């Protein structure tokens, strides 16, 4: 699949492997400094491929022995590949034995087999298995695995691998063994191994089919009390997948293991999911409501991969969205179904869309833009992106929209009937959905619909209204376009489902429907109306597009007050805020922003609304992010955007002072803690209110509300309330922020995930007078900071470079200097993490001078580093490309 470390791989060049590997027997003698790996494989030639040598991938391995059918054989090395030429002729299987060693304790890349906190873990997706043994490291080579683990019993009492435990016992000399057999064929990226000092929460369940299963969550000693929510989320996931899609748990046991050193959120290795502790550990004292929600979502996501990714996997890595986009969609549906009532479902949908629009839309418009199914890559790790995941999920969601919920389930059933145990493509999945619903509009539009997989960029839908008072006919002229992206010029029309509604002057809905836009331009016509309506377009965000409609303030205020679609109600508030911010930013005189009375009254009406959910209110009253506002501009001065947004927040804080005080008093919780949607929403609104009250207090020189926030910080019975109070003091720029931060650190100095919040809050705080970068540099020398730990690096460095544009984009370029230093430092330790940090300057071309030139210099400085990894080289090279 790749001929060398710097070779670009193209989807069009896919060829089936020249050999198949049917069975794998792995024997590990685990030692941090020198782990010995004996790999016995049953291999056979692929009769459909021209005879050729067997080329096995490897990386940082020490090779000791190669045997073919028990006999020594000649071999050679091509770069890091092991090449075997003198292999048995014909198509009969032969035995291949390879003995290697590796050094897990030195593996700072956290790919392959590595050591974290004196325990062994693996991460093999996408190409980590080659760091364990020589192998055909590609997803379409699926084999049955038997794994024997041997280790010191005292140091490593727990020995885990994929599948079912079939044997365990003593070896003498203080060592023991465990033998695991996975009954399902899988690609090597799903292999997993864990060994260490771990404790376990167990739960036995019985499926709908009457089978018994053992669920286990393994963590370090001392963390067991933080695993109840993860276990409950796992049980809910098992039940939901069986009820919603008829997909049962297929192993005797299902295991989750948490580690604090992990490049990703979690990994769906068959039956042995390895998780970042961030998405497992939670208690009301240490985790926020957001953490509880994320754990539920990620546990669901990884479990759902058991079928969508494991039982049916990807033919090649270009098909990554086959499993990731589909499974993100499934975990979104899971969270919405668990939320229950319509309002809580709507909140989840808005949160998902907000991620898409603040992260994926900019990616679509930047140098790393790529289709949901990419056409090429230099380093596959760079394509674990919001485009593949979140936009991929929206593509699947559109399929469900077009065939209906039951039709989509039929399509899933057909997909597994056809492809269970296979490595397939995105086309195979789309075809199954269409074939299961032959009478649907989707089936007829399938060839065109698949452009969502092949064309990059965010489509723009322009709507223009016409009103004929004489006939009572309202028209919406709809057109679509998509800007050029790297390597793709002109785009063909997409299939774009657009849910719509019309409201009369009093806010009553008079018409609604679904229009599927397939041409460059079409007109939707609604006759028989009594008066000119207000259009509600793209309800529920039925397609991942930018909607261009010249709404008036009056129309937006009508939608905000009356629309039956919660998404467009929230969207109306976003547009009202963005319009005001852009008008101020674009003012040639550079004058200050003054929020008008109608907007302020609309926000007051939402805040005081007697029936709206608190969670929805919090979403509406949260201003659009600085990065999102910046994306609406041709040329961006992040300092100006920051100043304008801060001004808007300060004015809302002052103008609604009494209303915020009411919201705080009415929504702060005093009873038993529960992370359910209603309780979480109340705490979120109370936290937003307290932040605005502290902001207003700074404007007025008042000490009452900061004092109340500090008291709340000290007395809170849960992390959500405590952290909301701390954030209110920090964001509000209060003098009490410093003692509160010191007290917080003293309270939670032994809680790594809580300290991540502490670092992130300081790095992401509003920049008043250029003080954030010096604080970040100082925090890098803090005894609790460790750049080798991905969570800690992300909490401080990423929170500053990627999530605090007003502080990062400094006119003196000091932020860019810091960024380049950290990218190069991380690249020598962990290229995956470094490459993600490198993406912080993706959109440098949009910056105003002098920032644009300074950013380019910083990127060029990184690009000039001679020993740069492929991960980072691909990012910076594409960023600099004309």
Automatic annotation (TrEMBL):
Its EC number is 3.4.11.2. Its cofactor is Zn(2+). The keyword Lipid biosynthesis does not apply. InterPro entries: Aminopeptidase_N-like_N, Aminopeptidase_N-like_N_sf, PepN_Ig-like_sf, Peptidase_M1, Peptidase_M1_dom, Peptidase_M1_pepN, Peptidase_M1_pepN_C, Peptidase_M1_pepN_C_sf. Keywords: Aminopeptidase, Hydrolase, Metal-binding, Metalloprotease, Protease, Zinc. One of its GO terms (molecular function) is alanyl aminopeptidase activity. Residues 457-549 form the Peptidase M1 alanyl aminopeptidase Ig-like fold domain. Residues 91-190 form the Aminopeptidase N-like N-terminal domain. Residues 553-881 form the Peptidase M1 alanyl aminopeptidase C-terminal domain. One of its GO terms (biological process) is proteolysis. The keyword Hydrolase applies. It is an enzyme of class 3 (hydrolase). It catalyses: Release of an N-terminal amino acid, Xaa-|-Yaa- from a peptide, amide or arylamide. Xaa is preferably Ala, but may be most amino acids including Pro (slow action). When a terminal hydrophobic residue is followed by a prolyl residue, the two may be released as an intact Xaa-Pro dipeptide. It comes from the Bacteria. Residues 230-437 form the Peptidase M1 membrane alanine aminopeptidase domain. Belongs to the peptidase M1 family. This is Aminopeptidase N. It comes from Ramlibacter pinisoli.
